[in-house]
Specification:
The protein is α/β, with parallel strands linked by helices. It has helices at about 20-30, 35-45, 60-75, 95-100, 115-120, 140-155, 170-180, 205-210, 230-240, 245-255, 260-270, 275-284; strands spanning about 5-10, 30-35, 55, 80, 105-110, 130-135, 160-165, 185-190, 200-205, 220-225. The strands form 2 sheets. Strands 3-2-4-1-5 form a 5-stranded parallel β-sheet, with helices on both faces. Strands 6-7-10-8-9 form a 5-stranded mixed β-sheet. It is elongated and about 85 Å long.
């Protein structure tokens, strides 16, 4: 019988956050696939776990996943762990899960710590709806993709969660401030679950000011308030109202809408009634 793939969440800082279920699983499987075996050995030694490990990371994820899937098809049980937190969340583990699923292997997830959710709950920002962006593309690697994502975030109404390394924090805060506005509320969560855990609740301009003369330390989770939908609507209406009415009508007529439907669309864009559009066109 094929084995099972266990997705095991590990602590993001405080070792006491590991679950009994994860410990028992890591002790009982045949292989542990770890993002960084040098880092994970500290965790295994702490809990007296002696299961063999193999490296599974961003640079070998495709070929190594094939090997691990083959092992599971031959009956071995494998647990996957990341350096900290839940595997597959902004993590190469998603490729192993994809290949295992395609091969018909049984997959189960052992829940536990996740930095994004931990930060969100402490942020004091709205939690009902949120968007997880993980790390933004670096300017050096993909400047256009970074600009595209930042542009999308400008109109995001959900609370946004990003990860950032300390040496890149200042540049990211500047880009966010330029894109989202200096008064946008943000909670900067650092060193989560560790001794020097800190949550800084401020605005993007306030965050930039804090780190003008202070060097960021530790790994950061940035939780940013989404944009007010009413502001987006008002901005959209203002943009359409600046356009001549005839040009606005032609915009929809060229798309194949009837005159009646075009008037309805124009009225919606401008935040007025269809009769107002009809009367104004009649005057013209």
């Amino acid at each position: 019988m094929p084995g099972t793939l266990y997705i095991c969440a590990t602590p993001i800082g405080n070792l006491d956050d590991i679950t009994y279920r994860v410990i028992n699983c890591l002790k009982s499987v045949d292989i542990i696939a770890a993002e960084d075996t040098r880092n994970s050995i500290k965790l295994l030694n702490h809990f007296d776990i002696h299961t063999p490990m193999t490296a599974y990371h961003e640079f070998n994820k495709f070929d190594k996943a094939k090997t691990l899937v083959s092992d599971m098809l031959n009956g071995k049980n494998i647990a996957i762990i990341t350096d900290a937190g839940t595997p597959c969340i902004s993590d190469p583990g998603e490729e192993l899960v994809r290949q295992a699923a395609e091969a018909g292997i049984s997959i189960t997830s052992l829940p536990g710590p996740a930095a994004a959710i931990t930060a969100l709950t402490m942020s004091a920002l709205p939690t009902r709806r949120f968007a997880f962006e993980a790390f933004l593309p670096t300017e050096k690697a993909d400047k256009k993709e970074r600009a595209r994502i930042l542009s999308e975030l400008r109109t995001e109404t959900r609370t946004m969660i990003l990860y950032e390394a300390p040496h890149k924090l200042k540049a990211t805060l500047k880009d966010l401030c330029d894109t989202l506005g200096e008064n946008r509320p943000i909670s900067l969560c650092r060193e989560l679950t560790k001794k020097h855990e800190e949550v800084i609740r401020t605005t993007l301009s306030g965050a930039m000011a804090k780190y003008e003369d202070e060097e960021p330390r530790g790994e950061y989770v940035l939780v940013i308030e989404g944009r007010n939908p009413d502001d987006i609507l008002a901005e959209s209406e203002a943009r359409w109202n600046e356009m001549p009415l005839e040009d606005h009508m032609n915009h929809y007529l060229k798309q194949g809408l009837s005159e009646k439907d075009a008037m309805k669309a124009v009225a919606k864009d401008r935040g007025v009634s269809k009769r107002d559009i009809y009367n104004e066109l009649k005057v013209q």
